[in-house]
Specification:
Helix content is 37%, strand content 21%. It has 182 residues and is of the alpha/beta class. The protein has one domain: 3-Layer(aba) Sandwich (Dna-directed Rna Polymerases I, Ii, And Iii 27 Kd Polypeptide, Chain: A, domain 1), CATH 3.40.1340. Strand 3, helix 4 and strand 4 form a beta-alpha-beta unit. The longest helix is centred in the first third of the chain and has 35 residues.
Length: 182
Amino acid sequence: MMCYNLLMDTSSRRTAEKELYEPIRGYLTSVFNQKLGHCFLEVTAEGVFSSTLKSVVRHDIIFYFLGKKASPDLTGFIQRKQSEWDAAYVPSIVQDFITVEIKRGKITLQDVYQAKMYGDLFQAKYALLISPERIPEEIKRLDQHLFVTYRYMSGWYLHVGQWLSSANTIEQNWLPHSPFPD
C-alpha cells in the first residue's frame, strides 16, 4: 500500500507540473516578444521537439542525449530581426536560444544544475528555472557565496523565478537578476 501511495504522489506531482507548462509558455512568449523580438517557444517536456526547433539547433547531436526522461520543459529561440539576418554573414535565423525548467515544488540544488545543464546543451542565453514556490533562502545564500547560477561555459546566468498562478505572471525578484532588459 505504501508503494502505491508513493507512486500516486509522484504521478500527481508530474500532472500538476504539466498544468504549469502552457500558462508559463504563454507568459514567457509574450514577454520575450515584447522585450526582445519574435519568440518561438514550445513544450518539450516529453522529449518531442518540433521540426522547426530541430532545424535551427546548431548541434543536433544533443537530441541523442535528450528524451522523455531528460528534456527541458520548454525550449525555443529568439528570432533575429530580418534586417540583421543575411545568410551570407549569419547562417541562422536564431539570435538566442531559450530553455525553461519548471518545478512544481520547492527548488533544490539538483534542479539548479539540471536547468544549467539544459542551458549549456542548447547554448541558451536564456536558461530559466521557474517554480510557484518562493526561491529558497538557502539557494539565494549559496548563490551569493558560490555563484551557482553562473554558467561558466558561456558566461551567462541561470535565471530563477517564482510563478504567480493567481496573477499569471512571474514575480520580478529573479535570482540573480531578471533575464529581460528594462
